[in-house]
Design goal:
There is one protein chain. The chain has 93 residues and is α+β, with helices and mostly antiparallel strands. It has one domain: 3-Layer(aba) Sandwich (GIY-YIG endonuclease), CATH 3.40.1440. 48% of the residues lie in helices and 25% in strands. A three-stranded antiparallel beta sheet has the order 2-1-3, sandwiched between helices. A hairpin with a 5-residue loop joins strand 1 and strand 2. The longest helix has 17 residues. The two termini are 17 Å apart.
Length: 93
């Protein structure tokens, strides 16, 4: 199982999109400075959204779409909807 995820920087409020096969490990890596220069410099991070995929190829395609100009509006929508739901204490499927 692979995951596409959206993180939000608690420091800069910027969004970050990635994919992984272990969501908990990857979030910990981002927050401990092992996730790459960008996430190390802009952390700590909080998980806003994730989607699961059966294979890496599907996850990579979705990640690339969300990072594209075409997918950027959907990325913001996904992050915004979930942020509002979290504030109200509701769970979102």
């Amino acid at each position: 199982m692979y995951y596409v995820y959206i993180l939000k920087s608690l420091k800069t409020k910027k969004l970050y999109i990635g994919h992984t096969d272990n969501l908990a490990r990857r979030l910990e890596e981002h927050n401990t400075g092992c996730g790459g220069k960008y996430t190390w410099q802009n952390g700590p991070w909080t998980l806003l959204y994730s989607e699961s995929y059966p294979d890496r190829s599907s996850a990579v395609k979705r990640e690339q779409y969300l990072k594209s100009t075409k997918g950027s509006q959907e990325k913001k929508k996904l992050a915004g909807v979930l942020s509002q739901s979290a504030i109200r204490g509701q769970s979102v499927p």
